[in-house]
Amino acid sequence: MENDQNILFYDGPCGLCQGAVKFVLRWEKKDAHSQLPLYFAELQSPAFSELLSAQLPDPMPDSVIYLHRGKVFIKSKAVFLLASRLVFPFHLLTVFQHLPSGFFDWVYDGIAWIRHRWPRHQALCEVIPAEWKKRLLV
What we know:
Blueprint: E1 6-10, H1 15-27, H2 30-35, E2 39-42, H3 46-51, E3 65-68, E4 71-74, H4 75-83, H5 102-114, H6 124-127, H7 130-133, E5 136-137
Parallel strand pairs: 1-2, 2-5
Antiparallel strand pairs: 1-3, 3-4
């Protein structure tokens, strides 16, 4: 696996997850993408199967999965690391990344449990601007 890969894997059918991807694309620092490009792929995609599925425990965690420089981050660790790429005030979430993750993972799990109640949208690639589409791996 390449050490410079930077990919956020998300649950494609989940409306909340699609919204989170659009949020990151909208609020990412301008220089963050030029330093280490961030790409997005659905957990259900061939890109996920090829890159990560063999490395994760079975059953796979019900979580966002962030592949960053060859390391895998899940749940709150993924969220806090991803927040470092966002503009003020969103990047302030990174102050929590050095605290024990148990509480934050519990909050994450609570949100993950109810996320399927959010309305589903069209496939993400159909509703985002063209300049963002090149960052979606299929």
